[in-house]
Amino acid sequence: MASILDFLDTDTGKQFVRSSSKQLGENPDKVKSALSMAMPMMLGALKKNAQTPQGAEGIDKALEDQKHDGSILSRITEVFQGENLGNLINDGGGILRNIFGGNQNKVEEAVGTATGMDSSKIASLLKMAAPVVLGILGSQKRKDQVGAGGLSGLLESVMGTSTAHDQSLLETFMDGDKDSVIGDIAGKLFGKKDGSKGLGDFFKG
Known about the structure:
The longest helix is centred in the middle third of the chain and has 26 residues, at 119-144. The protein has one domain (4-190). Helices cover 67% and strands 0% of the residues. The protein is built from eleven helices and no strands. It is globular. The chain has 205 residues and is mainly alpha-helical.
């Protein structure tokens, strides 16, 4: 079963880790570890928000936006250059405010404590990662023609708790890996899972 964590092991995911690590002046392994915690937490918050009709409609509208159509996956290097980086961070800041609300600082502190990274770096990393997460979801939504009513199932698939969208999730991860061999990518994406179990508990209550 594929999940958001498998994205980090694709060529595009590795490129994102390298680019964000360079921007933060941080060790790539530590950045990957932080993303392995933060990305599932973003999905968990989105899933919680999607449980109400109003929340689902809001997420659906955001994913319909052209900037979240998945094209970011094929231009990771480009979005870290010049004014594009500022746009990426501004977009990410808005996304985080919408999905975490008052929990945003708690998320940053939790990830920072677990990884040993400074909370200010975690805050920047989350802003850079949020548009990538929405890009993956937006691409999935378009491939599978998912509406607001199907977002919970889509999010469960990307979290790795459902197989409903596995094939198109594989295709989404491959979007930024144009030269990769299908068999090699499939082997990476459907390997072991780790790190996401229990993260949903963070958003209960």
